[in-house]
Each structure stands twice: as C-alpha cells, then as structure tokens.
## 1
Amino acid sequence: MLLKITVIILLAALAPFNFSEAAQTNGPDIAKAITDSYNATPADCGSSAQPAYLCSGVFIRGTDVYSDQYHTWDPSPASQESGGVSFSWLRKDAKFNKLAYSYNNGYIFYPFMNAPAGKTTSIDVLCIWPIDAASEYRSDSGCGPSSQYPTQSGPCQQQNIYTAEQWYDHYLEGGRSHLYQCGFETRSNSVYDRADGYYQAIRSMALISDESFNEQNELRLATWAQGMQRTLPIEAFFYISGTSGLSSAQNNQRDLLQSTDNAVWVPVIELKLPASPAEEAQFIFNDDDQAIHVH
C-alpha cells in the first residue's frame, strides 16, 4: 500500500498538469466560496422551483477511511441498490457538530447554481429530514416510510404536513423517533412546493435545536453513475479539524487527480464544525494539507 501511494505521488509530480476549469480557481478562493455559501441564508433561490440548496449551504458527504479498492465519490453498492445517496447540508441556520457515523473526512459538492461549467448539476435532491432519518430502513430511494412506521413516516406533504410547526407536532407524537418522523419531499417532479418544503425542514431544525445541533440532518440525492469523476460537482475534499481524517482527504485528492489524467484538482479543506450553537463552522485552506500543490 505504501509503495502504491508513493508511485502515485511520483506520477502526479512528474506528469504534466492539464487542468481545465480547476485551473481557474485555487484553494483559498474555494475555502472563501464555501464559507460564503455557508453564510448565505435565503429561503429559496428565486422561486418555488428553486430550493435553497441550489445557491447556498454546503452539501457534505462523510466517507470512510480511504481505500484503494474503490473511489470515494462512486455510489456504494447500497446506494446503487436503493437509488439514493445520503448527504448532510450545513448552513449558518442549519448547524450541527458531527457527521453521520462520526466520519472525519469526505467531500463537498458545489451548490449547483455555483458549479463551474462542465459539471453535472442535474443530480436530484429527493428529500430532506431535519435530523438523521435512518434512510437505510426506508423505501423509495430512502425517502419513503420506514418499515417500523409504514403509515406515519412517509413524506410530510403526503400527510398534509407543510410547516415546521406541523412537523414538530408530528415528531412529538412519535416520541421523537427518527424512524417515525416525516421528511419533506423535494424531488424535481414533485407536485408540492419544493423550495418551501426544503426551507420548512431548515426551520424544523430550529424547533429541535438541542437535538439537531448534536445530530446531523439528512438528504437523499438520486444515485449517479459510477466513474463520473470528471463531471461530478466536487468542490473540495475535507477533513474534520483535530482528527486523523487528513490522510484520507489527501489520498482522495491524489486519487481524483490520477483518475482524471491530471485534469481535475480540488483542494483539501479543514472543516471546523461548531462546538456550540453560538459558534460558526469554519472552512480553512492550509497549503501544508495538500498532497498535490497547484500554484
């Protein structure tokens, strides 16, 4: 394993870089762009068909320790089978202090409206829950009812639940069970107001702030095809500050560069999650954190 990583480093160092759109940005610029997206708090991006995630907030996918057996950005076998990939979404008004499974590294997608030309921006955001929903126990790409509560845990709008206050009452009725809670449907072909549904989920987090700060929200994105590393809207790899996640983030940076024939480079970003609700998340570019330096 050490030999393989060493060879990759040497190849990346010796091969001529042929960056496309990635060459137009750099690490500090991307850290600032992510911070700006985090601080922006619109209710929508211009209409009922444009939910807030399109132009604000931070899509976060926590991932396991780096392995040379698979690319971290390719959907897992479980996601391929279910049709959905789980993310969390971090914003100034949607804070949390840890990732699912206490992951300490992963990747960040651009808000789709802010992605560079040539990146895929049509990945459908199917649904959102204010707090982790154990989507692996749910049908319909992970957005449907849980097997434990088949009639109470389906999409909120289908149960005539449209506001954060109604979501909160329903959540209390279920004894604050994450499997009982409903999620807001946001899929592109929804008959409901997608933007308002998404924003009501954000508002719902505030109604259970003691819980939601200590456990991340959950989104389900429609599963994309394998091998899309050239076009996926990956803005950065990240690691959680003070953890061992840096090495995995660095290896993912190398892997992306090598697997795109030196065409796509994204920075490694240090993510400091807020320690208290009064604090803000921080997204920091450190030159020393980069496995591959671009100047």
## 2
Amino acid sequence: MAYEPNRRVYLFGTGGTISFVGESRMDFFNYSYRGQQLTIHEMLARVPEASEFAEVIPEQVINVGSTEVYPPHWLTLAKRINEQFSADPDAAGAAVTHGTATLEETAYFLNLTVRDRRPVAVTGAMRPPSAMGTDADNNLFDAVRVAAAPQSAGRGALVVLNNEVQSARDVTKTDSYRVETFQSGHMGFLGYADADGQVTYYRRPERRHTADSEFDVSSIDELPRVDIAYGYAGAGSTVIDALVADGVDGIVAAGLGSGGSPSTFMAGLKQAQAAGVPVVLSTHVGTGRVVQTRRFTEEGYIVADNLHPKKARILLMLGLTQTKDPVELQRMMLEY
C-alpha cells in the first residue's frame, strides 16, 4: 500500500550503527573500529522502495557514533527540523537516523523542541548495514513510512525499530545487542509499521509535546549543564559535591526504588539545593513513578514522575532555560 504520492519526508542522518561498514558480513561487534560510515545518501540508495511512500530529501547533519552525540548536536538537529518544517508547510514529516546508545535522548529532546504536529520518526539499527541479517534497511524504510503516514501526526517524536512505533517519551534501550532492544515498559508501544504496508496505531501519548511544548530553542546556543548522580547501597555525597563544585546547573538523582537513596547520598543532595542547584529525584529501576511524598515535598525536591533519569535530565535542561523556580520546574516534570 502506498501513501499519497509526492508526500515529502526530510531525512536527517547523524551516524550510528545504521551507517557503519564492518570488515565482513560476520562483523557484528567491531564495525566501528575502522570508522568507515555510509552517508545518508548512500543509506537511502540501499532502500529505493522508500520512494513508493514519499519523496525523500536526505541531509547529513553529523556522522558519528552515538556515544559522540552531545547536547549541541540536539540543538542543531531540532533547529534544522523546525527550519525545514517552517519552509515547507506541505512536507509530511521528518525522519532521523541515529546510533542506538543515545537515540532515546535525542528523540525525547526532539519531542520537546520540534514545534510542529508533523511526525519526526527516529530510527537506528542493532546490526550494521554490512552485516548478515542487518536491520538497518528495514528500519530506515519503516521510519520513512511512519514519517509519511498522515495518521502519525500529533503523536510527538516517534522511535521506529523492529516494525514497532514507540513514543519518544516512554521508550528506552533495554538490551545491548538484540534487535528488539527498544521497549516502553508498562506503557507499551504505540503501533506497528507492518509488512502489509500499514502504519497502525492503538494509542496516543497524553503528555505535552512538540506543537504544544513551551520550549523554543531557536535562539539558544548552549543548554544548561545537568548531570545525573547514581544512587546505590552505601552511596555517599562525593560525586554530588564534585558536581556542585564544578558549577553544574542542575542534578538528577537516579535513586533507588521509589526515588530515595542512602542518607549520606541524600545529604549531598540537600547541600546541592542549599547551593542553589535544583535537584530532581528519579529512579533507576526502569518503570514506575517517583511521587510527591511528604518527605520529598517538605525537603523541596522536584520529582520526575515516571521519566527515566536520562529523560528527566533533558527536561530539566530545557526547563532551566526558562526558570529556576522549583514550583515551575515541578509543573514541567508533571506535564511533559
């Protein structure tokens, strides 16, 4: 099944496994060693079937492994997508190829900063295009289909791998090598990009995103620095103290269970607050909420609800571009 003819999709390449060329068809692990990568134009040429669904316009933004994607790259990519959407009101959507290690972070940043209802489909691969059984071509093809599909509009930034469409807010990478690595926990995925040519949805994200977002990065050249402090049995305040001394703008605590951590760790967070550093309490257990308990509220902490620590960090970075008021930052955590 083909969608409306001549629907335009802008395809932005950033690198990652989906672009790397290994030494052989059996190279599933060392493919980044040589640093040889396909360009987005070369990747698109491998999937001529994408033209059945849209006029695809490729653009190379960066071409790096996902461990080398930094916040300035997020800004560049978000601005570029916003510029293209503004210049081409008839475009159907955008797709982004990305390394999987930081894919969920880039996707969530776009979920908060692309100011448009049109879809942004972010994809990657767990096996490079040079490997036997690669998922690179199928995932690229599916991302274009999802970006071109009218029913994808208004659902925020989407993550598309393994024939599944996931919300950028909820999804996380859960396995180091398996192709079904991206999962959305209790929330579940949104729908399928299936072999019959259909893009089929079953739910819609409820939290604010994209066109309803209050975050405008068009004039921002640098994001506030927010770091994550990891809680564990016996954790002290050493890392937290070092972050504050180094001038961090905000801290997300990846706490135990429901957000709490050892008293020595929490004492460090209190000192950070006293130094004027906003602190968000999250949890590293994978699913579930951190709620506004009496203790957390009395001690002035911001809670992340069910955002993973990496996602809470991104939201806090954007929130700090507008305010340091903990009441306002808490509102943002609960609305996005």
